[in-house]
């Protein structure tokens, strides 16, 4: 009797889960076409990564219905998961190759790290807000992110033991490029960072460290990010 009731219930749940995962994959495909590719992102590895990573699993349950919409979403503690287009654009600008080593400052939900990990598994990420770090660590672990790559700390100072990095992505805005990050970028490396005043419009800046360690910067587009906190507040301006 009990088996007769439970078995159809379990089958119904399994079908429902399968339906949802098919529907989410369709939402991701649409997100990539309408918000990312249409705005000029062409790197196939980036587009494929964005199609694969289940963005809805990086936000709270009550936000999941909006996970594939064209805007950032709150993740708690005054922080946000960036708009899908911005995640894709920053990933494309880094021009990562499989096997390269990259550092993300500002793990937040863990979504950007998961997208980067679709291109190279050698990703390190740092988050300053303890509870966000805990949640992102759990999610990323569940999705197979290697151990020892997510750290709770102040990313202004980078991750010295793991330096140098081929690429560094900073997902919070500062009024200058943190010198420790520049130092930890290997010659020939790339950094993407929002630079400008906090709580206002900043510029997304692409930093290139030449093989002879000369640094060039170029402004890509106006953006609005939450502020980089921690060491940046104590640094000389
Ligand atoms: N990349 C994130 C994602 O995919 O969800 C979004 C990042 S959110 C826009 C910026 C994050 O940077 C916040 O989680 C914030 O707590 C973190 N942050 C700010 N200052 C930081 C610092 N000095 N070191 C590490 N993380 C920092």
Explained architecture:
This protein is an alpha/beta fold and 237 residues long. The protein has one domain: Rossmann fold. 36% of the residues lie in helices and 22% in strands. The chain has 7 helices and 9 strands. The strands form 2 sheets. Strands 5-4-3-6-7-8-9 form a 7-stranded mixed β-sheet. Strands 1-2 form a two-stranded antiparallel sheet. Helix 1 packs across helix 3. The radius of gyration is 19 Å and the shape is globular. S-adenosylmethionine binds next to strand 2, helix 4 and strand 4.
Shape annotation? globular
The structural domain count equals: 1
Termini gap? 73 Å
- Proportion of helical residues: 25-40%
Average of pLDDT? 92
CATH superfamily: Vaccinia Virus protein VP39
Q: Structural class, judged by helices and strands?
A: alpha/beta
Low-confidence runs: 8-15
The biggest beta sheet reads: 7 strands, mixed
List SSEs in N-to-C order: HHEEHEHEHEEHEEEH
**Might you state the CATH topology name?**
Rossmann fold
Radius of gyration: 19 Å
The strand order across the widest sheet is 5-4-3-6-7-8-9
Q: Counting H and I runs of at least 4 residues, what is the number of helices?
A: 7
The CATH architecture category equals 3-Layer(aba) Sandwich
Got a strand count?
9
Bound molecules: S-adenosylmethionine
């Amino acid at each position: 009797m009990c088996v007769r009731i439970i078995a159809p219930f379990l089958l119904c749940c399994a079908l429902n889960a399968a339906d949802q995962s098919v529907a989410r994959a369709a939402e991701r495909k649409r997100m990539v076409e309408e918000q990312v590719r249409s705005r000029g992102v062409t790197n196939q590895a980036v587009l494929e990564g964005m199609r694969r990573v289940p963005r809805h699993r990086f936000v709270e349950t009550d936000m999941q219905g909006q996970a594939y919409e064209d805007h950032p979403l709150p993740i708690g503690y005054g922080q946000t998961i960036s708009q899908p287009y911005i995640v894709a654009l920053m990933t494309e600008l880094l021009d990562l190759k499989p096997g390269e080593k990259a550092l993300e400052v500002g793990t937040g939900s863990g979504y950007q790290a998961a997208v980067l990990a679709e291109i190279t598994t050698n990703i390190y990420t740092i988050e300053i807000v303890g509870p966000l770090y805990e949640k992102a660590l759990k999610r990323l672990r569940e999705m197979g992110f290697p151990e020892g790559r997510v750290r709770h700390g102040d990313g202004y100072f980078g991750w010295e033991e793991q330096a140098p990095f081929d690429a560094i992505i900073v997902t919070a805005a500062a009024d200058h490029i943190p010198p420790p990050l520049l130092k930890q970028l290997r010659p020939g490396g790339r950094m993407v960072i929002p630079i400008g005043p906090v709580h206002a419009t900043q510029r997304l800046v692409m930093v290139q460290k030449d093989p002879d360690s000369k640094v060039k910067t170029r402004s890509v587009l106006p953006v609005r990010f939450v502020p980089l906190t921690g060491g940046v507040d104590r640094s000389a301006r």
